[in-house]
Amino acid sequence: MAREQVTKARRWVVKVGSSLLTNDGAGLDYELMALWVEQIQRLRARDIEVVLVSSGAVSEGMKRLGWSERPHALHEQQAAAAVGQMGLVQAYESCFQKHGLHTAQILLTHDDLADRQRYLNARSTLRTLLKLGVVPIVNENDTVAVEEIRFGDNDTLAGLVTNLIEAELLVMLTDQVGMYDSDPRNNPDAKFIHEAQAGDPELEGMASGGGSGRLGRGGMLTKVRAAERAARSGALSIIASGRESDVLAKIADGEQLGTMVVPTAEPLVARKQWLASQLNLSGKLVLDDGAVDVLKRSGGSLLAVGVSLVEGSFHRGDVVACVDRQGKEIARGLINYSAQESRKIQGQPSEQIEALLGYVDEAELIHRDNLVLTGK
Predict the structure, then answer these.
(1) What's the predicted TM-score (pTM) here?
(2) Structural domains of the chain, with CATH
C-alpha cells in the first residue's frame, strides 16, 4: 500500500548528499548531476512538483581551494561554502536550463524556521515557486549560520522542508542502497530493511552504527531522524542509492527500491508541525507524574500546578520543552509566561496566578493549541 501511495504523490522533496555530488571529493560530478536533473524534468512532465535539497557547497569549495579534509573551524567551513556555492548553483542552473526549467536558490538557517513569521514567509515563497513551475534548490546557508543555529546536516533540513511545504514524499539519495539491520561491511549476514515505521526506536539503533563520510556531516541516523520529521506531516520517506539508474523514475513507478519509512500517526496540523520542528529550545519545564499522564492521555493544556521545576531563561511566546522527572521529553509548546513568572507560579493552581503575579494573562502555562506531544 505504501508503494502505491508513492505513485500518487504529487509533491516531492529530493535530497542529494555531498558524497554523490562531488564523487567523494573529486569535484562536482557534472555527468551524474545532469542525470538527476533529467529525471527531475521527467517528474515535472508527470505533474510532480519537486524541491531539491542539495549538499555539496562546502565540498566543492574545498576542491576549488585545494583542501583534502573538511576543516573544523567554522569560519573556514563558511569560506569554503561561499566559494563552492557559486559552482554548485551554476552547475544546476546550466543543467536545468537545457530542459527549459527555471530554478531558484533558497538558502536557509534554523533561525529562518524557528521564527514563526519567517517560517511562513519561506513556506509561501516555496509554494509560489512550485506553482510557477520553478524547481527550488535549497541548501543550508553555511556562510552565515553559526554553530548554535545550524541544522547540522541537509538530511535534517530536507525533513523540515518536507513539513514546510507539506510534501507527500521525501527521497534521500545517498551512496548506499538503503538501510540494513547492522553494518554490512562488518556483518555479512546483515539484513536489508525494505520498509520500516517512523519513530521505531529499533530503527534508530540500527542506523546509529554507520558514520558519515569525510565530506558530509550526516549518516544513516540523520536520515532516519529526517524521515521521522517528515512523517509528522504525513509524508513517506525513501532512502535509496543515487547511483541507481533512473532511480527517481523507478520510485515514481512504485518499484521497491531502497528503504521506505512510513508514518504511523495522523499528520500534525501546520502550526504543530512548526512547534515539533524546533531544534533549539529556550527552556525546560519538569512535570510531575500527574501532568505527564494528562498530556499523554488527553493532550490537554499544561497548568502551572503540574510543573515541579523551571529551567532556563525564556520569555512569553518562546518554545520550551516539557520533560518528565527522568528528563525524557514529553511535549513542547509556546509558553504563556516568562521563566521568572513561571517559577513564581509553578506547582500552584490556576486561580492563584493573579495573587502571585498581580495579574493573569492565561489560566494555562501552555494552551493545548500551542502544545505538541513529542515523546515516544
Answers:
(1) 0.80
(2) 2-272 (3.40.1160.10), 281-373 (2.30.130.10)
